[in-house]
Write a structure and sequence with these properties.
Number of strands: 0
CATH topology of the largest domain: Hypothetical Protein Yqey, Chain: A, domain1
Distance between the termini: 48 Å
Radius of gyration: 18 Å
Strand content: under 5%
Largest sheet: none
């Protein structure tokens, strides 16, 4: 089992001992998603696979929060955002946007001048360390107009 999955399991055990129902349910749900992902893959689960599950869980909760806000249910939106924040605790430190901008500028200077190829080169480098939307925004800001 991946080291990160073990960390999540330990956090779930701590939440159960502390009788923190919300955290217990959240971590139990994420670990179930991790186990499902493990069944889907033909290889042993890696930390990268667990990070993908975490990122998907965070994304789902942020999107749900946006929908709840639009529907006027701020109480539910706040709950989803708190859950996303809890899951973010298990992510590695986020990449510095200036570091990403430098990498984008290097690739552009090297002749890559389209969003698709830039994203293809950058996503593997920053996977799990930077949200795809933020990466796409930086790429679009750095590309010369036209």
């Amino acid at each position: 089992m991946a080291e990160l999955a073990g960390t999540l399991q330990a956090a779930l055990t701590s939440a159960r001992k502390a009788q923190d129902k919300d955290r217990t349910v959240l971590l139990g749900t994420i670990l179930a998603a991790v186990r499902n992902r493990e069944l889907e893959l033909p290889k042993p689960l890696s930390d990268t696979d667990v990070l993908e599950v975490l990122a998907r869980g965070i994304k789902q909760r942020r999107e749900a929060a946006e929908q709840f806000t639009v529907a006027g249910r701020q109480d539910l939106a706040d709950r989803e955002l708190v859950q996303a924040t809890v899951l973010e605790e298990f992510l590695p430190p986020q990449a510095d946007p200036e570091e990403v901008r430098g990498a984008v500028r290097e690739l552009i200077a090297g002749g890559t001048a389209a969003v698709g190829p830039l994203m293809a080169a950058l996503v593997p480098r920053y996977k799990g360390r930077l949200d795809g939307k933020v990466l796409n925004q930086i790429v679009r800001e750095e590309l010369p107009p036209g």
